[in-house]
Write a structure and sequence with these properties.
Bound molecules: pyridoxal-5'-phosphate
GO cellular component, one term: cytosol
Structural class: alpha/beta
Radius of gyration: 21 Å
CATH class of the largest domain: Alpha Beta
Helix content: 40-55%
CATH superfamily of the largest domain: Type I PLP-dependent aspartate aminotransferase-like (Major domain)
Strand content: 5-15%
Oligomer: single chain
Cofactor: pyridoxal 5'-phosphate
Order of helices and strands: HEHHHEHEHEEEHEHEHHEEHHHHEHEEH
CATH architecture of the largest domain: 3-Layer(aba) Sandwich
Keywords: Aminotransferase, Pyridoxal phosphate, Transferase
Shape: globular
GO molecular function: identical protein binding; L-tyrosine-2-oxoglutarate transaminase activity; pyridoxal phosphate binding
Enzyme class: transferase
């Protein structure tokens, strides 16, 4: 028997596949604007000082590595809750939030998807058009039919909010609606506070299941302001899901540090929800890893380290904003006639540049500049050494 003769070669992951091509590229001045990673001005993935200090203290203890609880350690989970809902949240006090450490934001999305699937609601999952490449795959793998809601308007380069409202209103009861809590990936276009309130009203009126994906808290306007969507949903009285990640905000990509939080209606409901959530996790990877979550908890639960982390996060945020500003200026200086001011208005790590697939291909072939074929560029990978080259190359392919 030849078991694998019918196995087809799967397509490469659009983002990690691009990185493979970038790594193989021999040009010394190549630039990778494809992957969603923050780089310093020296082009390095930063190791935050707050992380180093927390890690040194953890390593010095030489703690044994036994299994940790299925849902992860309490100091970590409560730090996640405080960050998302605010330390004085009545939801937390009333025992209405269930949190489990998960393997990055991806793991949190998958555990949440598996949990919702087991509710047997027989409804689809709706993702924004466009969205992060993996959203569709995660929910399809969990057995959902995945549909799209209108989100981005290519003409205004902002959100088509009327279209979004129409889509949301058309979904059947119990549709899981995946919403980017801030710093929309890939477009960088977020909705306003007033628009969030409307979205909440629709979710309530139509019995939709809100699932907030919070992968970039702190990258737009800071921890508190970027948490606005979560806070508004918390006020709404609805039950909802939040997947959160410290991959970007702690620069801990490889440690896989994330969490799933579920807001319930009562303490009793929380107990039952947690018991089922633990079954989902136990039959998947049993229990989460110790190291990354221990670092995040140590930082978040120490006033000094937390301040240091927030300062370092602010530095990352400000550098990205400076690169947005610089790119707009340099494109104009390179003779580009189109108005690229939208790049400065977009938030988080990414910009939907408006470049076509052909233009992106030319950037890769002619200049060794790698971006997604959708035109998404990672502004957090620009720096003072590569920004002139990038601006000039974009100007050339646009001419
Ligand atoms: N959600 C969005 C919107 C993302 O952009 C990402 C990562 O790029 C994730 C979730 C997953 O993050 P993690 O690397 O923590 O799994």
């Amino acid at each position: 028997m030849n078991l694998f003769t019918s196995v087809q070669l799967a397509p490469k992951d659009p983002i990690f596949g691009l990185t493979e091509a970038y790594v193989a590229d021999q040009r010394a001045d190549k630039v990778n604007l494809g992957v969603g990673v923050y780089y310093t001005d020296e082009g390095k993935v930063p190791l935050l000082k707050a992380v180093i200090q927390a890690e040194e203290a953890i390593v010095a203890k030489h703690s044994p590595r036994s299994y940790i609880p299925i849902e992860g350690p309490n100091p970590y989970n409560s730090a996640v809750q405080n960050l998302l809902f605010g330390a004085d949240s009545s939801l937390i006090k009333d025992g209405r939030v269930v949190t489990a450490e998960c393997l990055g934001g991806t793991g949190a999305l998958r555990v949440g998807a598996d949990f919702i699937k087991r509710l047997n609601l027989n409804a689809p999952c709706a993702i924004s058009n466009p969205t992060w490449e993996n959203h569709r795959g995660i929910f399809e793998s969990a057995g959902f039919e995945v549909v799209e809601y209108t989100y981005f308007d290519g003409k205004t380069r902002g959100v088509d909010f009327d279209g979004m409202v129409k889509s949301l209103e058309s979904f059947p009861k119990y549709t899981t609606v995946l919403l980017h809590a801030c710093c929309h990936n890939p477009t960088g276009a977020d909705i306003t506070e007033a628009q969030w309130r409307q979205v909440i009203d629709i979710c309530k009126a139509k019995d939709l299941i809100p699932f907030l994906d919070m992968a970039y808290q702190g990258f737009a306007d800071g921890i508190e302001k970027d948490g606005i969507a979560v806070r508004l949903f918390a006020e709404s009285g609805m039950s909802f899901f939040v997947s959160s990640s410290f991959s970007k905000s702690f620069s801990l990509y490889g440690e896989r540090v994330g969490a799933l939080s579920i807001v319930t209606q009562s303490k009793d409901e929380s107990t039952r929800v947690l018991s089922q959530l633990k079954r989902v996790i136990r039959t998947n990877y049993s229990n989460p890893p110790t190291h990354g979550a221990a670092i995040a908890a140590a930082v978040l639960n120490s006033p000094e380290l937390r301040q240091l982390w927030e300062d370092e996060l602010a530095e990352m945020r400000d550098r990205i904003k400076a690169m947005r500003h610089g790119l707009v200026e340099k494109l104009a200086a390179a003779g580009v006639k189109q108005d690229f001011a939208f790049i400065e208005a977009q938030r988080g790590m990414f910009s939907y540049s408006g470049l076509s697939a052909e233009q992106v291909e030319r950037l890769q072939k002619e200049d060794g500049i790698y971006a997604l074929s959708t035109g998404r560029i990672c502004v957090a990978a620009l720096n003072t050494k590569n920004i002139d080259k990038v601006a000039q190359a974009i100007a050339r392919v646009l001419a």
